[in-house]
Each structure stands twice: as C-alpha cells, then as structure tokens.
Amino acid sequence: MQILTPAAIPSHIAIIMDGNRRWASQRGLPRAIGHASGARRVRQIVEACSERGVSHLTLFAFSTENWQRPADEVSSLMSLLVNYLQKEICNMHTNGVRLKIVGDLSRFDQRLQNLMASGQALTSNNSKISLTIAANYGGRWDIVQAVKAWQATNPAVNLSSLDEAGLRPHLSMGHAPDPDLLIRTGGESRISNFLLWQMAYTELFFTDKLWPDFSVALLDEALHWYSARDRRFGASSVHAQRAK
Ligand code: IPE
Ligand code: IPE
Ligand code: MG
User: Fold this and answer.
1) Which range of residues forms the domain containing residue 38?
2) Which CATH number goes with the domain that contains 152?
3) What is the mean pLDDT of the chain?
4) Which positions in this protein are listed as binding substrate (predicted)?
5) Which parts of 36-107 are beta strand (E)?
6) Does residue 66 have an active-site annotation?
7) How many degrees, rounded to 5, is the angle at CA 42 between CA 37 and CA 44?
8) Taking the CB of residue 10, how many other CB atoms lie within 10 A of it?
9) What is the pTM of this model?
C-alpha cells in the first residue's frame, strides 16, 4: 500500500467499536469474553494511530442507551472499563497519550470516577496523541448539557444570543477538532447517537469486521480510503477550484 503523506492523515479519528457480542456468539462464548477481546484491541489501535501521526482518537466505549442491556452485561462492561484504566494508564503516560473521558460520568461508581479523574490528571500534559473515551455518552445528551452549561456561564444573557461558536466550547469535545474520519466496525451503517454535532462533515467508513477482529491493516485501509475523499464542506471541490 502506498505510504500516506502527513497531510493525508486525519487529525481526528472517531471509532464506534461495535460487534463484540456477535464475535462471542459466533464462537459460542459468553458476551463478556467478546467485550474483553474487544478491549484487548484498543491498545494496539491507539499505538498505531499515534505512530501514524493522528493527533486525536475518540473511542465510543459505552452509550447512554447501553444501560438498557442486561444487568450482568452492564456490570461486566463496567469491570472491563476499570481493568482497562488500571492496566493502561501507566502505559499511556509512558507513550505520551493524553487521556480524556467524556460523557455523564456521574452515573459511574465512585471508584471508577476516581480512576478516570486520576488518569486524566496524570496524563494531562502529554501531547503525542489525545485519546478520548466516550463513556455513558450520547450525542443528544451532549447538546442538552452544553446548552445548560452555556446558560450557567452566561446567566444574564438571553438564550437568543446563543450561536454555534458560543455553544462549541461547552460540548464534551471542546478540546478537539471535529472528527475527520469515523470508523464503525460490526456491519451497521448508523451513528447510534455518537458525536452528532461534531460529525456534521466527518467521512464515514463502515466495515463488516467485528471489533475484536479489527486490525492495523484495516485501519490502514480506512486511512487510504479517507485519503481519496474529496471533502467539500458544502462548497466547491478543491479539485474543481484548482481546475478553474
Ligand atoms: C460493542 O459491541 C460494545 C458496546 C456497545 C458496549 P456490542 O456489545 O454492541 O456487540 P454487538 O454489536 O451486539 O455484536
Ligand atoms: C454503539 O453500539 C455504542 C458503542 C459501540 C459503545 P450499539 O451496539 O450500542 O449500537 P446499536 O444498538 O447497534 O445502534
Ligand atoms: Mg452493537
């Protein structure tokens, strides 16, 4: 495969890591094993993105709707999140990863909240890659919480003065540019309430591969696919403008 120039690499990749339960059921394994296998993929993909010069990576780990799953599955997902953070925070710090966790974290137990806070504090000055994990995150929740946060910081200002630029810093992803590329594994072609505001002009790459089988080779395939997109943002094509 042709080597991509740094300019062709997306600054921000978002990933919907989907398909863990189907991966497990295809093998006659419990769902929790599918989730654990999915979690083991994460380190390699963070490292590969970092090596390729991606500056922001955002992973959808748990949606606001995922609480509707059976209690034992939710609890195994929570344990995995705790284990993942316990195991990976030191490694992230060594590798220059800045960790950020977005979502309504108040619903998580105190131990998990403390772990999230300490991981973010420890890695806050790192700059090789910014890794955002979306946990108890929903795009609709994000927009509503941002409006409330805007109102709280501008109590004397009428809501009619709110505009896009004013709202943006209050959204959960205020620390990152909008994603250039979304990758969704697992064969579904939908957004499932992920970064609704931020993905207005994101290029969407869907693959049938289930998340535990996602590989660096497939990441590279997505990057090559992305490099051939003509991003117009509603304006004229860059190529058409050059041809003028
Ligand atoms: C993604 O895999 C992980 C989470 C949503 C937490 P799923 O658990 O959705 O697995 P499938 O899509 O049902 O196979
Ligand atoms: C999206 O996957 C959420 C995460 C990967 C965390 P889901 O499996 O929850 O989405 P749907 O139900 O297929 O839309
Ligand atoms: Mg799913």
Assistant:
1) 10-243
2) 3.40.1180.10
3) 96
4) 19-23, 31, 35, 63-65, 67, 69, 184, 190-192
5) 56-63, 97-102
6) yes
7) 110
8) 26
9) 0.96
Q: How many domains does the chain have?
A: 1
Whether the per-residue pLDDT at 243 is higher than 60: the answer is: no
Distance 85 CA to ligand 2 centre (A): 21
Residue 5 included in any domain: no
Ligand 2 atom 14 nearest Cα: 192
**Ligand 2 midpoint to CA 31 (Å):** 14
Q: Which of 119, 47, 50 is nearest to 83 (CA)?
A: 119
- Sign of torsion, CA 105 142 95 74? positive
Q: Decide if pLDDT at 123 tops 90.
A: yes
Residue of 25, 182, 192 to test ligand 2 pocket, by largest number of atoms within 8 Å of CB: 192
pLDDT 10s digits, 27-55:
999 999 999 999 999 999 999 999 999 99
Decide if 3 is inside a domain. Answer: no
pLDDT digits (tens, 9 = 90+) for 174-185: 999 999 999 999
Residue 238: pLDDT over 70: no
Tell me the residues surrounding ligand 3 (ion) with CB < 5 Å: 18
